[in-house]
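ok trying this again, last paste got cut off
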Amino acid sequence: MTGVRVLLVDDDRDVRETVASRLRQEQFEVISCTYFIEAADHLHVHFEGVVVSDFRMPGKDGLWLLNHCRSVDPELPVIMLTGYADRRFIIDAISLGAVTVLEKPCSMKTLIAEIRAANDRRLSRLEARSRRAKRQLRSWIGKTPEDVSLSVQMQMIEKTLIEKSLKRHGGDIANVMKELNLSKSTLYERMRRAGIDPKKFR
């Protein structure tokens, strides 16, 4: 990745465009979204970046998005913005795992600093996951990842991701489908191919 990636979610077009413009001046890669449903399409367990979301939005609000991020990847960093000094919301957001809650209009200097720090942690954790996956692959097949074809590596990593998701969700297929963004038929086919029995996780 050449820069910091930010998924910016805010239904206020003026605010969204102003913040996006400022972040792009910092050479950030900004993905701008208006609503929850649009933002959710960009999120996956390997997302390299930071989510910055407004709280109050039509339909599913920022807490819905925060909950969705937690289901996709508990370590996915989310910075919440709010134009209302609502103590209950702040407590809820932090308890759900938000990196921080900033009151609008917030200092762009502060927001940029928070994004950079969160992004550094995100990339560090993704790299740590990659190292763990390589070690696990080595323990499974007795070879270093460099000695194994990419297709085999991908199959082993996929097996690990599915098993971890099944464990997190107690074998609940619907939640695993949602987390891994897979259709039911695709998930079952990949479990069959990897020799995974979802009943063992219930």
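PB: full thing came through this time. The chain has two domains: 5-123, 149-201.
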